[in-house]
Amino acid sequence: MTPANLADTVLSAARAVFETRGLDVAALPATTAVERPRNPEHGDYASTLALQLSKKVGVAPRELATALAQELGRRDGITSVEIAGPGFLNIRLDAAVTGAIARAVVTAGAAYGRNSQLAGQRINLEFVSANPTGPIHLGHTRWAAVGDSLRRVLAAAGAEVASEYYINDAGAQVDRFARSLFAAANGEPTPEDGYAGDYIGEIAQQIVAAEPGLVGQPAQTALPVFSARGYELMLAEIRGSLERFGVHFDVWFSEKALHDGGAVEHAIETLRKQGHIFEQDGAVWLRTTDFGDDKDRVLIRSNGEKTYFAADAAYYINKRERGFDRCVYLLGADHHGYIGRLKAIAACAGDDPKSHIEILIGQLVNLVRGGQPVRLSKRAGNIITLDELVDAVGADAARYSLARSSTDSALTLDIEEITRHSSDNPVFYVQYAHARIASLLRNAAEKGITRADDYDPALLAHEREKNLLKTLGEFPAVVATAAELREPHRIAVYLEERVATDYHRFYDACQVLPKGAGEPATDLTHARLWLAEATRTVIANGLDMLGVSAPERM
């Protein structure tokens, strides 16, 4: 019985008690939760439902708890229910009920942990969206890892998710990029406001190799070519770096296409119909202060030029018109000021900012080696690139290390720590647990032992087995919470602190395979092989939600 099943049983028992006593059934919550007590001696699970309901229905909590305990005691699989304190319910399950979790996990396989909590929701998830004027750097890399993990977790919770990369291919930064390439191709110094780094020279060389006649041409003629070809090459490099990192985007959306396709004008007209546009000093404004923004925003300057904010508004409206229920933006720490203005755009468009738009802000990442800052990148000037990080530590270690911490806090990665093959390295610790199980199952196969078609779940009664089983049963709830709170790092914490730790403790305490060469497998052997296979399934499913491999050998 998983926590979710038991929670449903507790609610069902509460309904029976309410109906018997003539209490208002409408006071019952739609869902409830059961938790594992900190002290295992208090039982397998605990519920505070009696405490939560007592005031609503005018029944003393301990009296209500007593009635609930009696009703629960009649349910199959529950061996006892004890009342603690003012009305806590401590529930003990039959060993066979807990032991059956392994069967449920193995039977579900890759689907175990997935749920329908967000079924019916269409979510647009935009992340990274680095300007196509340079390589993906370390700050973008954190969002690449977190964003792709979040995409996987949201999908596991039943949402229809489209991952999207917004290409900032319009505006001054593209012009500066083209001028930087032009200068490099002609042996001139980098423009004062241009882009530095060896990659500029490399791209310029590729463009000149394809079109040698560009060198020496006047800027008016050459710049459009450098702009177009440089954009194509840089975007191709960005795509390649992200794909190498295991990050695939469903949509690559061009800002330039918004302007060229009339989407900006359409958005302004849409906002005008909503009654939030006004004109002042020859400019067109959106009255975002009506919805909490710190100041009103200009859409069209007095010279007729459309602002970046106008494109932002058009982009949001375009997403909603594509049928997305919720638009989720993952932005860097330097974009904190965007929260108010983006939510104001949603409100001005007639949407509910609390339900239709969501902005997540991530903090900075620092890279060190042995406690000392890693050198700056020669190729990219003053940044560390995604490719350099993957070369240094590998995609798995990089992704796991970037996704395992809350984005609310700045993160420091030590190259030596995240590549060390020891239990102190979180990614190694979790992957090793998977590889250890794979080795166990190979050894069993070499001995001619399989986990059999079924097993007696009541045999999994050792304390270490019960702890591991209950931990495996919590995985669907962990996934649901990670999706609801947009916190994929909860998956990593669960794998590290619960699953891997409980498995290693189980393995050290419980003999799985026969010791002697001729010693036959027992029913307990088969039961424990089911438990090992269930653990491997949960680890593999959890790592997959983080975009990290589950190795068979290490």
Based on the model shown, name its key terms.
alpha/beta; 22 helices; 554 residues
Q: How many strands, which pairing sense, and closed or not: the largest β-sheet? A: 5 strands, parallel
Mean pLDDT: 94
Oligomer: single chain
Strand order of the largest sheet: 6-5-4-10-11
Spatial shape: flat
Beta-strand residue percentage: 5-15%
**Structural class determined from secondary elements:** alpha/beta
The share of residues in helices is 40-55%
- State the helix count: 22
Radius of gyration: 29 Å
Distance N to C terminus: 33 Å
List the helices and strands and how they pair.
Layout lengths: L2 H19 L23 E3 L1 H9 L3 H13 L4 E7 L3 E6 L1 H5 L1 H8 L13 E5 L11 H19 L3 E8 L4 H14 L12 H13 L8 H26 L6 E4 H6 L2 H11 L3 E4 L2 E4 L10 E4 L7 H14 L4 E7 L5 H11 L4 H4 E6 L2 E5 L2 E2 L12 H8 L1 H9 L7 E4 H4 L7 H21 L16 H11 L1 H11 L3 H21 L13 H23 L9
Parallel strand pairs: 4-5, 4-10, 5-6, 10-11, 12-14
Antiparallel strand pairs: 1-3, 2-3, 7-8, 8-9, 12-13
Helix pairs in contact: 1-3, 2-3, 5-22, 6-16, 6-20, 7-8, 7-9, 11-12, 15-16, 18-21, 18-22, 19-21, 19-22, 20-21, 21-22
Would you mind describing this structure in some detail?
The chain has 554 residues and is of the alpha/beta class. Helix 11 (263-273) packs across helix 12 and helix 18 runs antiparallel to helix 22. Strand 4 (122-126), helix 6 and strand 5 (160-167) form a beta-alpha-beta unit. It is flat. The mean pLDDT is 94. Helices cover 51% and strands 12% of the residues. The chain has a five-stranded parallel beta sheet with strand order 6-5-4-10-11, with helices on both faces. Strands 1-3-2 form a three-stranded antiparallel beta sheet. Strands 7-8-9 form a three-stranded antiparallel beta sheet. The chain is built from 22 helices and 14 strands. The chain has helices spanning 3-21, 49-57, 61-73, 95-99, 101-108, 138-156, 172-185, 198-210, 219-244, 255-260, 263-273, 308-321, 338-348, 353-356, 386-393, 395-403, 415-418, 426-446, 463-473, 475-485, 489-509, 523-545; strands at residues 45-47, 78-84, 88-93, 122-126, 160-167, 251-254, 277-280, 283-286, 297-300, 326-332, 357-362, 365-369, 372-373, 411-414.
